Amino acid sequence: MSRRVALRQIAHARAGDKGNVSNVSLWVNEPGHFPAVKAQVTAERVAEAYRGLLHGDVTRYSLDHLHGLNFVLKEALEGGVNGSLNLDGHGKSFSFILLDIEVNLPD
Amino acid sequence: MAKNQDIFRIGTGAGFSADRLDSAVELVEHGNLDAIVFECVGERTLAFGHRDRMADAKAGYNKLLPQRMRAMLPLIQRHGTCLITNMGVANPAGAAARTAEIARELGLTGLKIAWIEGDDVTPLVTPATDLPEFGGRVKDVGRPLVGANAYIGADSLLSALAEGADVIIAGRIADPSLFLAPLRHAFGWAEDDWPTMGAGTLVGHLMECGTQITGGYFADPGLKDVPNLTFVGMPIAEVTADGGATITKLERAGGCVTAATVKEQMLYEVHDPAAYLTPDVTADFSGVEIGEDGRDRVMVSGAGGRARADLLKVTVAFDGGYLAEGEVSYAGAGAAARARLAGEIVETRMRQVHSRQEPLRTDLIGLNALHGSLDRPDAGSEASRDVRLRAAMRTTDREAAEMLLWEVESLLCDGPAGGGGFRGRIDPSVTTHSAFLPRDAVPTRTEVIVV
Questions:
Q1: B429 with B295, same domain?
Q2: B270 in contact with A at a CB cutoff of 8 Å?
Q3: d(Cα B328, Cα B306) in Å, to the nearest integer?
Q4: What tens digit of pLDDT does each residue of B47-71 get?
Q5: Does B134 reside within a domain?
């Protein structure tokens, strides 16, 4: 048996920007959840969650000992804060797209 | 070590150009600080600084500098705290002159105000200058050049620190370098002691955004609660000679310092955690240990570093024309459908009646604005009873920008039923691209005024 939860229930995240690149770091609250999150929240899965906004690729870095992942999303900010017509040209709200992703947690 | 045996206490007074002042005042009054850093420059602020300076040779520094200096100068003198800032933006000399004027107005004497010249490399930029990330040269951008600044490093502040300056004002210095420099000076770290440069850079990186490590940019009610966020306090780093640090805040201030706030900030605007590039070092945060040491005290250690890059990054700013935005609201039954119709009308009329071809975007705020481009937008309900149309356009033509606002405002009479609350604004815009210069092409120098 397993249960399905949104990342927002078990993790926290922060988004930052550099030009047209966004990075979103993800940190699980309980270390025991990290293996399941690392196995399921792949770069591909994250690219899918941002489809439409994202026009480049996603690179994932892992900080296993801190139970965190860092996702770097290229061409993700509709040109970046100086070129975008999006109200949120910095992508400050991007962490909440990641936190909507659902994962299965073993009981 | 001016004040604290074996520990250098450094605080943040501003984490961005528009940051609050009361939390900085509180920190200097009660923080027993050796130094306080006001970090106030972004790529956009710098470009606007150049523009201001072109219009008025005395301008081009942070617009809040007078308020900040009026509040801080008496306090830093009384508490023996060194104030380090990049509030000089595009005019450090002008910022220092204004600071000296304020010190005199306040009747202060014996204040040593230093400023750093050399980051402005506009004269070195030519039409042939390569912009590798843009994939072309300056002449290919096709927009007027506004200015160019190199990211200078901690080295540039050392002579001002050695002279015992009370206030040090720079322009485009890398943010973590504002913190690394006083640590280097206090502990005598060698510039090629790369792991220690990495450790000091971690401290600077954690501190440079102010309250983003004490509970700002963090709260999500019910899941991530922050006590007394309204009065969130600025952070303090207690740094030891090995580069390890404890991040904390005043007990009296709001906010919190936890492993979670520190982790989020450690990777803020970081790509590869093992290669964070600054003018001082290639810092490695991948092995950092983060441990809570009592309430609102978090210890960080284990950052590393490798040799710094040979080239300095340069931000080259160009005139970006205008960003025009017009908004109007619809409420009650059918609000979403009426707002959508209004947006279609604006777009059609801008294209057909006014023949404008610039990028134009319409958002339904409350339904699909920030994440509206997602294939599966986290859309609000079509039954929403309070929806705001936003139409936005970028253009180099001022008349076109004004035309967009006119079209949105005309919806009040000519558009769907019940539209109200029109607002419109036109903001000048800049675009920036990166170039690279050899380090020795960017010498810096220190100037001092004593009041």
A1: no
A2: yes
A3: 53
A4: 889 989 988 999 999 999 999 999 9
A5: no
Q: A-contacting residues of B 416-435, CB under 8 Å?
A: 429-432
Instruction: Judge: A27–B264 Cβ closer than 8 Å, yes or no.
Output: yes
Report the interhelical angle of B65-79 vs B22-30 (nearest 10°).
10
* Claim to verify: residue B248 and residue B397 sit in the same structural domain: no
pLDDT of residue B58: 95
pLDDT of residue B135: 94
Question: Per the structure, how many domains does chain B have?
Answer: 2
Number of domains chain A is built from:
1
pTM to 2 decimals?
0.96
Range of the domain at B31: 8-120+150-311+439-450
pLDDT value at residue B37:
98
| Residue B22 forms part of a structural domain | yes
The verdict on a CB contact (< 8 Å) between A63 and B286 is: yes
Residue B96 lies in a domain: yes
CA-closest candidate to residue B324, choices B372, B415, B380, B395:
B395
Q: What's the rounded Cα separation, in Å, for the pair B419 and B335?
A: 9
CA A10 centroid distance within chain: 13
CATH number at B414 reads 3.30.70.260
Q: Report the distance separating Cα A53 and Cα A47, nearest Å.
A: 10
pLDDT digits (tens, 9 = 90+) for A27-73: 999 999 999 999 999 999 999 999 999 999 999 999 999 999 999 99
Asked if residues A11 and A26 have their Cβ atoms less than 8 Å apart, the reply is yes
Distance CA B48, CA B53 (A): 9
- ipTM over 0.85? The verdict is yes
Give me the half-sphere count of Cα atoms (radius 13 Å) on the Cβ side of residue B128. Answer: 0
Chains A & B: contacts with CB separation below 8 Å: 110
- Residue B231 DSSP label: G
Q: Which of A27, A51, A63, A90 to mutate to test the interface with B (most CBs of B within 10 A)?
A: A63
B246-250: Cβ within 8 A, 24+ apart: B246/B293, B246/B297, B246/B298, B246/B299, B246/B300, B247/B206, B247/B207, B247/B213, B247/B297, B247/B298, B247/B299, B247/B300, B248/B296, B248/B297, B248/B298, B249/B214, B249/B296, B250/B26, B250/B27, B250/B30, B250/B31
